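Sat 14:20. Reprocessing the chain from the morning session after the first attempt stalled halfway. Input below, unchanged.
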Amino acid sequence: MSTAKIDLHLHLDGSLNLTWAWKTAVKRGVVSSDCTFEQYYDRMHQKNFKTREEGFKKFDFPIAILQTQEDLCEGTFHLIETLHEKGLIYAEIRFAPQQHTLAGLSQAEAVEGVLQGIQKARKSCPKIQVGLINCMMHKGSSASFNQQENLE
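Finished this time. Tokens:
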């Protein structure tokens, strides 16, 4: 008998399908075209950070490849596909739309890209249900630094 699995705290940018992420990072110029999958993997899976901030900075790498609606859609789709293959029946994916505006997307467009990925996954992975949690960010020296973006 198989046990149903759920994940209630899954960061989109920290849970990407590695093969898709590597190919997309090469395609988008986030890494050089001669970057091997093994090199990409080592960069993504660095451990033993000296500070909490150093650990959080690691998210900058996968965030850099999630700067278009297409990549947000495809990244979300491939994540859900991977979760489905692992037998999950429910997942709550969280992400901060502010992090995906570096190349000109609005936060609303970033959310729409992720929602498109969820919709696409529903067609090919109907046994898994997915919730989406939008996160606000605390950047700068005070909460007022990016208050407008958080209100948006």
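The first strand starts at residue 5 and ends at 11.
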